[in-house]
Amino acid sequence: MIPVHIITGFLGSGKTTLLQRALASPAFANTAVVINEFGEVALDHLLLQRVDSDTVVLQTGCVCCTLRSDLGTALLELFDKRERGRVPAFDRLILETTGLADPAPILFTLTADPVLRHHFRLGSVVNTVDAVNGARHLARHLESVKQVAVADRMVLTKTDLVDRASVEALRAVVNRYNPTAPLFETPDTSLALDRLFTAETFDSAPPGGDSPSVRGARVRFSGACEAGEAVDRHVRDITSVSLIVDVPLDWTAFGMWLTMLLHAHGDDVLRVKGILKVRGVQTPVVIHGIHHLVHPPTSLPRWPTADHRSRLVLIVRSLPAPIIERSLRAFLRLVPRERSVA
Amino acid sequence: MCALCGGIEQARHWTDRLEATESEAEGPAAWRQSRQMQVALANRILSQHGLEVRDWDANAFVLSNRTGQSELVLRLAAVWSIAERLGRCRCDPLDPVLLSRLECEEGLDEAAT
After folding, report:
1. What ipTM was assigned to the predicted interfaces of this complex?
2. If contacts are CB pairs under 8 Å, which of residues 107-136 in chain A contact chain B?
3. Rounded-to-integer distance, Cα A176 and Cα A73, Å
4. Could you tell me the residue range of the domain that residue B34 belongs to?
């Protein structure tokens, strides 16, 4: 399975620079690139220094729901060329989206297409946030918030162009929308690219820091953008909700709850991400979801920290955090603890 | 498709029993056991709307309303939209009425919360 890493980020946030840097690294020699362009003329690929037969440029505009087939076709054609030996046998693919792209449909394409999902798997979603304009974008553009919300890794770019206080303020804003994704900064010559583009996308840092010991589910954090800008109403209502459950989850009850939640409110659930202690399962189970789609859960070989409690983060729009917590707790209580089968 | 019963084999869904689950039951027995639990839980949630879910040969679900209208549902995740149609109701886990009912039901495990 070939990992597909996705670079998202608002217009001018440094996606191409990051991609160039990755391609310049010997460790990324076997990397194919798909560039999605917005507008009639694809410009970004001209900026890339190494555009060759491994590179596909989608010129049909922003990757959105109506254009998923374009992306799917491009990926399959690239895979076909690889199999026929017409391009080198790349072992990694990086997709650079347009600055206005909602990344969710791209992820849908990878996981929902019956052919693609047998050849490609989702790698990490890396989001670039411009330290100069990022706070403004996050306050005004829902697309920018969505890009932050779905990210597994975030890179704050152009941090040398603003003072440290501004960087820290932006870090705080970004962290509120996505408390689980590690933040990196550029320019930083020591930036470890392999930590950005990795298949392991659940990190160890528990969201929200310490809180009183809880039993069952508990809201750990809920916050909205306070970037000091006039905040767009579509952005203002987006919050991050972190839940911790310190008893093993019943998988059936959890699945019942999450499918029902996504059925009723999937449009307003930008992201679900969790590392779960499931009853009857020894290893931690990682789950990712975007809107209505949940990726097949995966297991980690071991817990990343000594904290073995289930942690679930939801980035939601206009959904009350206390009710989400109450709902999860009620569903988990439907199954007695002593039930032996998950 | 199964040559004997005509059932269509479904690809795994993320809500299905995790393969790494350890239990006394194994193989098909464990699968059926987890399906029974899915059905039981779904019925506890949907009963207030006069709906009933039944397992269909461990391969699909049958959802019925009080007038006898029934529909085959392949995935647990698809139950909710069909339930809304058959039950003329809204399936929302954040619905305060549903939550109050679930919280008051007997048999809940207080120690788990």
Report:
1. 0.87
2. none
3. 36
4. 29-105
